[in-house]
Amino acid sequence: MAETVAARLSAAGTAAALELRGVSRYFGALAALVDISMTVRPGERRAVLGSNGAGKTTLFNCITGDFAPTSGAIRLFGEDVTAFPPYERIRRGLRRTYQISLLFNGLSVIDNVYLACRGVSRGRFSLIRPRRGDALAQSAEDLVAAVHLHEVRDQLVANLAYGQQRQLEIALALAGAPRFILFDEPAAGLSPTERAELIEILTGLPEHIGYMIIEHDMDVALRVATRVTMMHNGRIFKEGAPHEIEEDPEVQALYLGGGGDGGR
């Protein structure tokens, strides 16, 4: 038995962070995803780009378990999670942010982050007030600093600027030692200054945390990603390094001069 457990741990250590094999998703006769296969290495930062309706958000929903794929398989760190509900994927280190902010506006920044840390801990249902020096409280403080919100840690979330709320969402996604994060358009609606800070935060994440980012802002996406997947009509159209995608004439014709990017 011990050898079996050791073998599983060894395999997980060498497995890809995320593997998709022939993943398709249909809504009736509408094909949102068609035969998507990709491999993302541990610690890799992957951008998924494409025009409206390319299938990017549906892809995220299949990875997180919000949608079940019509066919195909999804593996996280070597484990087949295709049939797992979202909370089981969270337990295995997967996190996600959404296009629309989901925060406790009536609580402070630090309380939001503390609840996120508490929510993925073993003691999340305990009614006992945390003691001074509580490890989760220190984790919350560290995450607030990591997303550059220490100066507003005690402010109500409702009073934050929009860009600060997006930074707070990243802190929530970092709670509980995630291994892989899905960022859904984190730069949407940000000013140039806020986008620059977002880039600094994302590039400054610990190297062992991989992520996949949907982003219509090409400048942000190509600066924070080490590899890019372009989607078109529910299929993978191109893959390559950021400079390869930026210089590709077909990509330029289809996307770089295009409009906004809401996904599907």
From TrEMBL:
GO molecular function: ATP binding; ATP hydrolysis activity; L-isoleucine transmembrane transporter activity; L-phenylalanine transmembrane transporter activity; L-valine transmembrane transporter activity
Domain ABC transporter residue range list: 18-258
SUPFAM superfamilies the record matches: P-loop containing nucleoside triphosphate hydrolases
The keyword Cell wall biogenesis/degradation is assigned to this record: no
Keyword Zinc assigned: no
Record-annotated membrane-spanning stretches: none
A GO CC annotation given for this chain: plasma membrane
Gene Ontology BP annotations: D-alanine transmembrane transport; L-alanine transport; L-isoleucine import across plasma membrane; L-valine import across plasma membrane
UniProtKB keywords: ATP-binding, Nucleotide-binding, Transport
Entry superkingdom: Bacteria
Name recorded for this polypeptide: ABC transporter ATP-binding protein
Organism from which the protein derives: Acuticoccus mangrovi
